[in-house]
Design brief:
Layout (H helix, E strand, L loop, with lengths): L1 E7 L9 E5 L12 E3 L2 E7 L3 E9 L3 E3 L7 E3 L5 E7 L5 E2 L8 E8 L13 E3 L5 E9 L5 E8 L5 E9 L10 E8 L10 E9 L2 E11 L3 E2 L5 E2 L2
Parallel strand pairs: 11-17
Antiparallel strand pairs: 1-4, 2-5, 3-4, 5-6, 5-8, 7-8, 8-9, 10-12, 12-15, 13-14, 13-16, 16-17, 18-19
């Protein structure tokens, strides 16, 4: 069966190249190159009967799910993938469940905590802060979802990628579900250029929000001699 796959470009993420990687092409990016027309990247894949997992690989390093996928399933490593199922009659099967998710809260701090955060921390010092932590709270949650965080340094270079799988708490379905993404600031093997860093967040492959924090190499002082934190 021939299936067309599309990814609509977002102005919030510069894209130079996209490939479809999946179980049907051994996850090889050169086998699934997409072509751009307007702001849509597209390709067609020939799928035999069976269950087929795939993602979009952007700029050789960013893996995102298909926002238009009808089904997401975890693999053996509990990584969530977009999924297409073809039956023995060469027909595509569709999931009739309507899944929901709502971003209820967002906070930036220097620690991993579910406690309320009164104000977002916007300035971090390499000499005193151990990490930058982004916390997301979700409500009205059903089904499985993938949340992806991209960290860009002060030069605009992609520094780190992380993905968490999101699902409802079956024992407490009405309580918010929290997930955390953190950037360690004490990794001696990595560079941390001074300046404004950007985090971009994606939900099931769709851009949802971005934020900026300032990372500094040294603590600065005010005229009164007090430590100044941005």
């Amino acid at each position: 069966m021939i299936v067309r796959l599309d990814y609509t470009a977002s102005p919030y993420l510069e894209i130079n190249r996209i490939s479809v990687i999946g179980s049907f092409n051994d996850y090889k990016e050169d086998c699934g190159l997409m072509r751009k027309s307007g702001n849509v990247w597209s390709t067609e894949v020939s799928l035999p009967p069976g269950e087929h997992n795939y993602k979009f690989l952007i700029n050789h390093e960013i893996k995102l799910n298909d926002p238009m996928a009808n089904l997401y399933l975890p693999n053996e490593s509990d990584e969530l993938w977009s999924t297409i199922i073809i039956n023995d009659l060469d027909q595509r099967l569709y999931n009739n469940e309507q899944y929901t998710v709502h971003i209820d809260s967002y906070a930036v701090s220097g620690m991993i905590t579910p406690a309320p955060i009164s104000a977002n921390k916007k300035g971090f010092h390499l000499s005193s802060d151990k990490m930058v932590v982004v916390r997301l709270g979700f409500t009205n949650l059903s089904g499985l979802h993938a949340v992806t965080a991209l960290w860009f340094d002060a030069r605009g270079v992609l520094h780190d990628i992380a993905e968490n799988m999101l699902c409802a708490d079956e024992e407490s379905p009405d309580k918010p579900v929290f997930i955390w993404f953190w950037l360690p600031l004490n990794d001696t093997q990595r560079e941390y250029p001074e300046g404004v860093w950007t985090i971009k967040l994606f939900l099931d492959g769709s851009y949802v929000l971005e934020d900026q924090v300032t990372i500094m190499n040294a603590i600065t002082y005010s005229s009164t001699g007090q430590v100044y934190n941005a």
